Known about the structure:
- The chain is mainly alpha-helical.
- The protein has one domain.
- The chain is 77% helix and 0% strand.
- The protein is built from 5 helices and no strands.
- It has helices spanning 3-31, 33-55, 72-91, 93-114, 125-142.
- Helix 1 packs across helix 2 and helix 2 (33-55) crosses helix 3.
Amino acid sequence: MNAFVIVLIGVLGGIAGAIQSGALGVMEERVGTLPSVFVTYGLGGLVIGIAMAVFGSSKFGELGELPLWTFSAGLMGLIVVGTLGLTIAEMGVGPGLTLFTAASLIAAALIDHFGWAGVTRELNIQALAGFGLVIAGTWLVVAQS
């Protein structure tokens, strides 16, 4: 895939994430965390199940070859959806996603630095300065909520 398509996919994913987060905040306020997480995963599971039935999944059988820790993605997804619903219901979409994104960026940098996901990318002074700006920007957005 070329760089433009990858960036476009990332932008579309970000837009979908903001829309999903707003919906999660509304569901959190109206029905609570567990039902909103259930709706998110139940509907998502149904849609992906239909897509797999229609389009097939030639590599589905290779799941057993993955390292065991990779299956934590499902659990982490539950935590992501649940915590987004809670924070956005209280703070709003903008501050909630800002806090979520800042925490994700910093955690991702540590994961890369220590090679916990199979790729090692050492932190340098430029990246650390960037994270300082991320933290300062997050504080400016979140402090008003």
